[in-house]
Amino acid sequence: MKFYHNPSHLHSLVSSIIKSSKRTQLNNFTRCFTTRVGFESPHTSRPIDSSKHQKNTEASYSSSSKLVLYSYWQSSCSWRVRFALNLKGLSYEYKPVNLAKGEQFSPDFERLNPLHYVPVLVDGDTVISDSYAIFLYLEEKYPQRPLLPADPRLKALNLQGASIISSSIQPLHMLSMLKYIEEKIGPEESLSWAQLHIEKGFCALEKLLKDFASRFATGNEVYMTDVFLAPQIAIATARFNINMSTFPSLSRVNESYKGLPEFQASSPERQPDAVHGQ
After folding, report:
1. Which conformational region is residue 151 in: left (phi greater than 0), alpha (psi within -120 to 50 degrees), or beta?
2. Integer angstrom CA distances of residue 10 from 68, 221, 240
């Protein structure tokens, strides 16, 4: 497949989209209805002989009943948040926003996120958009099952890995970006563009993580980088035909993700707004 031969012109065409997408992520389509989603992680089991622990856990589950997630079933950004919520054992109300019908531009949704992007998390009076910000909020507000390690070096590594995915990979293959390239250049160029930037990001992650990766990206526990990486790999292989054999460390940890019940429950086909056959 031939890639566009005037990269400076192509970058000027999409620069305005890149600037905004560096801070938030666009998701594709959603069906508009509401349902209650609950997932209890095996990592948050409660010992029955500890009344204090049980009381604290019940309090956390009670407070989590306020959580509302505006999501789209195929969005890798929404997928990250669903995965994190599942790992923490937090139940939430699932509210899809149908981007195909323009519901993200409704006055109600604009009050939640003026950029008209999902995911958005509502926790009582607190409204957070952008999956990176949502993740950090959940980690601070709901510390059960920490998803950032206590070790400063590993914590920095996880923040860096997640940032590469959310800032340097996903925004460059988001739907609005690819549609713009298709309209201005052609459909083949949009795929080449996406593949170029996904592989560039994966190459950086492979080098960053190769000395730390074990069962998961930074060791034997699931942390922030895993939460961002698992959906990104799934999207890259399914939609953009990325050959993961080029990235042995990432490919190995991806096999571990597939066996996690929290990841399985957060997958697109398990969401209430999933459109099967796509």
Report:
1. beta
2. 38, 41, 20
Query: How many Å apart are CA 163 and CA 204, to the nearest integer?
Result: 12
Cα separation, 172 vs 195, in Å, equals 10
- Whether 75 and 12 have beta carbons less than 8 Å apart is answered as no
Tell me, letter by letter, the H, E, C secondary structure of 227-260: HHHHHHHHHHHHHHCCCHHHCHHHHHHHHHHHCC
**If you search the block for the tokens 């940890």, which residue do you land on?**
253
Note whether 267 and 79 are within 8 A (CB).
yes
pLDDT 10s digits, 56-68: 433 443 344 589 9
User: Which residues contact residue 50 at a Cβ distance below 8 angstroms, ignoring those fewer than 6 apart?
Assistant: none
DSSP 121: E
Q: Which two tokens stand for residue 190?
A: 């949009």
User: Tokens in use for 136?
Assistant: 């950090």
The DSSP letter of residue 126 is E
- Residue 67 has a pLDDT of 98
Q: Global pTM?
A: 0.79
Helical ranges in the chain per DSSP H: 7-21, 51-64, 76-87, 107-112, 131-141, 152-163, 175-184, 187-209, 224-240, 248-258, 261-266
Tell me the CA distances in angstroms from 67 to 36, 85, 87, 94, 148, one per residue in order. 10, 10, 15, 9, 21
**What is the residue whose two structure tokens read 């549609």?**
179
Prior bond to 187 cis, omega within 30?
no
**Region of residue 220 (phi > 0: left; psi between -120 and 50: alpha; otherwise: beta):** alpha
The residues near 15 (Cβ < 8 Å, ≥ 6 apart) are none
